Amino acid sequence: AQGSKAPMQRMVDRVSGVFVPVVMVLALLTAAFTFWQMRSLDVALMRAVAVLVIACPCALGLATPTALMVGTGRGAELGILVKDGEALERAAAIRTVLLDKTGTITQGKPSLTDFVVWGTRPRAELLALAAAVESPSEHPIAQSVIQAAQAENLAWPEVEDFESLRGQGVRARVQGQEWYLTSPEATAQFLALGSDQVDKVHATQAEGKTVFVLHDGHLAHAMIAVADTVSETSAEAIRLIRAQGLRPVMVTGDNRLTARVIADQVGIDEVEAEVRPEGKAQIVQKHQSNGAVAMVGDGINDAPALAQADLGFAMGHGTDIAMETAGITILRSDLRLVPLAVRLSQSTLRTIRGNLFWAFVYNTVMIPLAALGMLSPMLAAGAMGLSSVSVVLNSLRLKRFA
Question: Same domain, yes or no, for 15 and 49?
Fold first, then answer.
C-alpha cells in the first residue's frame, strides 16, 4: 500500500511536472531582471539560485506519500490492512455500506436448531441422509448438519454424485436415489408443501432461522433449521456507521423473514433479501446510483460484489478470493473496524490536504521573497528543509489516530 499511488498523488505529480519548469523560468527571469536593474552578475545569480532552492518541491512531493505511509501503517496496527493508497482514498467517499449477513453481521458459525420429520421415516435415518447430502460441501450450513449427525453418532452412506445449486441448496445421489436439501423457495420448483408445512416454515423463519427442506424431488421428508449468532460488535458497528452519515444495507440470500429478524437485532432498516450470489453485484450497481458504495463480505459468493463496489471490505476470516478482490481487509472479526477504516481514510485525506495547503502557502510566500533578494541561498535552503520537516511531522500526527 505504501508504494502505490493514490489519485491525489498522481494529481500532485502532474502539478509538480508543471511547477518545476515554471520555477526554472522564474529563476531565469529573476536573474535577467536583477542583472538589468543592478548590473551585477553575482547578485543576479545569487537571487536566481535562492529562487531555485526555495522552490524545491520536496514538501509538495512528500505531502501525499508520507500521510499515506503513516495512515496505512496505523491502519495495520489497528487491524485494517489497506491494499493500496487508492483504496484508502476511496474509503472517504463512501456513502452506502452493503453488508453480507453470514460471517459478517453474524459469526458465520451456524448450528442446527430444528429437525422436523414430515412422514414416517425415522428421524435418525433422515438426519443421516441430510448429512450425506451435505458431506461434499464446505459451506458453514453444511458443516452444521454434519456436526449434528456426528453428535448423535450417526453414520451415513457415500455420495455418488453431488451438485451445489447456487443460492438454493444442494443435490446429491445417495444409494441410487436423488436427494435435495433446498430452501423453501427452491423446493417449490419440485413440489408443493402442505399448508401445515408452510406454516411451520414461516414460523421458524420468523425466529430468525434459516430453513431448508429435505426432499427427493417428489415428497418433503423433513424440515431443517439452522441459526447463526449475531456478532457481539455488529449492533455497535451499525450505530457507528450511521453516526458517520453512512447508510447501512444488509444483503443476503436468506428469506425476507429471517433477514428482517437479523436486521432488526443490529439496527439495519434496509434489507436486500433472497439475493442469489450472482445478483449481489447487481445490487451494488443499483445502490451506486446514490453515491459511492462499499461492500463488506467474506465468502467466494461475495467476490463479484466486492469487485463491483467502489471499495470492497473483506473480513479476515473469509476466503482468499474475497481478500484478494477487496481493497481493504479487516484482520479481526470485528465489524467496528469498517467505520474506523472510513474515519482513518478521512483523517488521512485531511492530513494530505493540510500538507498540500501549507506547501503551496510556503511557495507562494517564499518565492517572491527570494526573487526580491530578501533570502540568501543559505537561508532558502534552511527554509526548504524546515518546510519538508513540517510536512513529515504533520503526517506523523496520524500515529495517534484511534
Answer: yes
100 is catalytic: yes
- In angstroms, the Cα distances linking 96 to 102, 310, 349 are 19, 10, 19
Give the neighbor-by-neighbor strand order of the sheet with 328-330. 80-82, 328-330, 311-315, 292-297, 94-100, 247-251, 270-272
User: Inter-axis angle of helices 123-134 and 140-151, to 10 degrees?
Assistant: 140
Q: pTM higher than 0.85, yes or no?
A: no
User: Is residue 222 within 8 Å of 130, Cβ to Cβ?
Assistant: yes
pLDDT tens-digit readout, 68-88: 999 999 999 999 999 888 888
Is 1 within a domain? no
Residues in the chain: 402
pLDDT tens digits for range 85-121: 888 889 999 999 999 998 899 988 899 999 999 989 9
> Which of the following is catalytic: 13, 42, 84, 100?
100
Q: Based on the fold, state whether residues 211 and 128 are members of the same structural domain.
A: yes
Residue finishing a domain among 195, 227, 259: 227
Q: List the domain range (segments joined by +) for residue 242.
A: 80-107+230-342
R_g of the chain computed on alpha carbons: 31
**Dihedral sign from CA coordinates of 64, 68, 69, 74:** positive
Closest CA to 89 of 328, 334, 354: 328
CB 50 within 8 A of CB 380: yes
Alpha helix stretches (DSSP H) within 300-398: 303-308, 320-325, 337-371, 377-396
The residue among 308, 342, 376 that closes a domain is 342
Same-domain status, 294 and 394: no
Gap between the terminal Cα atoms of the chain: 20
Looking at the structure of the chain, the number of domains it has is 3
